[in-house]
Amino acid sequence: MNTSPTPTAEPPPTVRELLAFYLEAGVDCALLDEPPNRLHDPEIAPPPAAVPSPPANHPVPPSAVMARAPATAAPAPDVAIVSARDAARTAPTLEALRALLETFDGCALKQTATRLVFADGNPQARIMFVGEAPGRDEDLEGIPFIGRSGKLLDRMIGAIGLDRTTAYITNVIPWRPPGNRDPSPQETQICLPFIKRQIELVDPDVLVCLGKPSSQAVLELKDGIMRTRGRWHNYDTGKRTIRAMATFHPAYLLRQPIHKRLAWQDLRAISKALNAVGIAPAT
Ligand code: URA
Predict the structure, then answer these.
(1) 201 in Cβ contact with 97 (< 8 Å)
(2) Exposed end of the chain (fewer CB within 10 Å): N or C?
(3) Which of the residues in the chain have pLDDT under 50?
(4) Is the CB of 149 under 6 A from ligand 1?
């Protein structure tokens, strides 16, 4: 005979509990007013009825595949990467590059972001900082690094006598990934031509990549930040070679303040390099 107590059904979660659950899972914004029923999406054509499967030597024509894609879907990543490359190289100025990104529809992140987060600071600056992607605060304001990690970044660059009038700040990805999830490798590849063109146009003397995703994407460094930080790398724009350094992302330093000591060493090396070309105030 089974003597174990009968399990009592859990009461359903309250709305407050559900919201707390979503928030903890990183869902902090609503993309639509109503939940979409993906099974009844009028944009998606129903599969063709009673069409016999094509023989193996007759692949499904692309038009049949395309018919099932929503009309607003971003192009396939490889198509988007090629069109990003073609578009980015045509921008003669930073303003033109920003305008190009405003109309570029190749990256699906644009559809869920509130706005483009292009850059902040001085485009004439001799030092350029590149983060990963905007977060919630940046998405709302359209300015990179203005949330908690941005405040720390301001203090970090302040420690070597710089601020947003003497530094240029941007991200690899100019649209916030929903819920601050990591950008996918395809999204990064699609945005890469634009950040590369941005570096070319700013043409700084020192380039600083904040965190592993930025240093992997821009400097093509394979190792983690602990191995790559604090060393000088070369960034080749095609026209000249720029001195580049990877250091910790301020968001990481907020979680691991013990590494601020190493970040300080990196900042001192950066300050020295700027002094060597007669630029930064000594610290
Ligand atoms: N983290 C980033 O990488 N970029 C921002 O703009 C803000 C937070």
Answers:
(1) yes
(2) N
(3) 50-71, 282
(4) yes
